[in-house]
């Protein structure tokens, strides 16, 4: 119950923020603003989901923020004509979507291969990949902002069902599936076993290497979808898309109860972490707090979350 207290504590915290928001600005509790919070948090939710799965196995993936930029950017370059800074191939959106997902999967597979087969440090490997992919994105786009993609490129963020953006439905379904797998499927139990004690997991017959690489692939695909959602939300792709996003991703995961030591955390906790940060950002915007303070506040939230983790679990994080 002490471990559960860390993630369940976010629910009353969300309630407090909602009440505070109602006092800060009368438009906070309107339907339009609530949908705006959900829509703006959808891309972050997809990336947090991917990072949470990696963290549960006891690994890291810092390169997800660059995947958010480079995967949809290459998809756009395949679609756009040469006159609009594209490759001039004019691929249909369906093929470009497959390419976007494959790019995310390939990045994840490469990261997983280096970490699993070469036994390289996951933090350093993915940090290097973050830098490499960021450079590739700037080079491929020549530092320009890409416009003129077909409307289908923005559909996840612009199309709605029951007045809610499709991106929100997609994120909700992804979290439901991940939560079910982690709780009821042997693969989900294997992730916790690997993160808890990798040697014991091997001894139990779990295919540690295969599952770990698979988690990196899944995280890359989720990040590419998050990038596509972000593209639709912004309406364009610039050479800095996703930059510094990883700090917010870790903030959401950590305050949601995902352990940096591996083997602990739930999708409910990760999702509430995303919603908490979404509400915080919306409140700061409505209160007209300068945007450059937001990252500082996120950092403070991470520190508080780590202290809460220390008190609720009784275990220091290495």
TrEMBL record:
Q: Where are the transmembrane segments?
A: 34-55, 62-81, 93-115, 122-141, 161-182, 213-236, 242-260, 267-286, 292-312
Q: How does it sit in the membrane?
A: Multi-pass membrane protein
Q: Which UniProt keywords apply?
A: Cell membrane, Membrane, Transmembrane, Transmembrane helix
Q: Which domain of life is it from?
A: Bacteria
Please state the protein's primary subcellular location.
Answer: membrane
Q: Where in the cell is it found?
A: Cell membrane
Task: Specify one Pfam family.
Answer: BPD_transp_2
Query: PANTHER family annotated for this entry?
Result: ABC TRANSPORTER PERMEASE PROTEIN YPHD-RELATED-RELATED
* Full protein name: ABC transporter permease
Which species is this record about?
A: Streptomyces humicola
């Amino acid at each position: 119950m002490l471990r559960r207290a860390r993630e369940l504590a976010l629910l009353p915290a969300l309630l407090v923020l909602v009440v505070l928001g109602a006092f800060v600005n009368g438009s906070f509790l309107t339907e339009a603003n609530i949908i705006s919070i959900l829509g703006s948090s959808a891309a972050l939710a997809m990336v947090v989901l991917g990072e949470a799965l990696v963290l549960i196995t006891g690994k890291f993936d810092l390169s997800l923020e660059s995947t958010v930029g480079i995967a949809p950017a290459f998809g756009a370059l395949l679609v756009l004509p040469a006159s609009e800074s594209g490759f001039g191939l004019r691929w249909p959106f369906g093929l470009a979507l497959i390419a976007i997902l494959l790019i995310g999967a390939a990045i994840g597979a490469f990261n997983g291969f280096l970490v699993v087969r070469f036994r390289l440090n996951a933090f350093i490997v993915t940090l290097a990949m973050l830098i490499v992919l960021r450079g590739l994105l700037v080079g491929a786009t020549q530092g320009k902002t890409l416009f003129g993609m077909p409307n289908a490129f923005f559909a996840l963020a612009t199309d709605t069902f029951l007045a809610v953006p499709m991106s929100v439905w997609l994120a909700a379904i992804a979290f439901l599936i991940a939560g079910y797998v982690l709780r009821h499927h042997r693969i989900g139990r294997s992730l916790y076993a690997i993160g808890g004690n990798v040697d014991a997991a091997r001894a139990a017959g779990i295919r540690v290497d295969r599952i770990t690489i698979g988690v990196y692939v899944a995280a890359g695909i989720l990040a590419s979808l998050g990038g596509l959602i972000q593209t639709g939300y912004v309406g364009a792709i610039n050479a800095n898309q996703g930059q510094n996003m990883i700090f917010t991703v870790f903030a959401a995961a950590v305050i949601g109860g995902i352990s940096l030591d591996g083997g602990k955390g739930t999708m409910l906790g990760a999702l509430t972490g995303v919603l908490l940060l979404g509400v915080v950002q919306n409140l700061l915007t409505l209160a007209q707090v300068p945007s450059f303070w937001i990252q500082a506040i996120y950092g403070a939230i991470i520190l508080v979350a780590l202290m809460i983790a220390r008190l609720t679990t009784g275990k220091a994080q290495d």
